[in-house]
Amino acid sequence: MAEDDPFELSRFVAAQDLVFETVLAELRAGRKETRWMWFIFPQLRALGRSPTANFYGIGSIEEARAYLPWTQVQSNLDPKRFTVRTVPALLAKASAWEEYCDGQRPHEQAIKRLGKHKAAA
Q1: Where are the domains of the chain?
Q2: Domain 10-93, what fold?
Q3: What's the superkingdom here (predicted)?
Q4: Predicted TM-score (pTM) above 0.70
């Protein structure tokens, strides 16, 4: 652990550097396809269940305070690089049910049962 990086925040930048252009492309496309959530939008370590979530989890309020203003991380969090402004347009053209039946186990049986239950009520 380096003196200038007591929380080892460099672990985030190292991971982000490998996939950041992919992350931006997926955000612009409105579809996450690869694994990057842990180190792009870290959560509290206590909420993690996997070794990866624990490794990239924020362990304390002090670490969170160090993370957000840290220059190297902050450059990756620059709003100009993200696509938050595109969200309304993505939502307008998206259909919540569009890919529903593309899943491994479509829920047709559950929908039929709900219809029968509603008709009986």
Answers
A1: 10-93
A2: 1.25.40
A3: Bacteria
A4: no
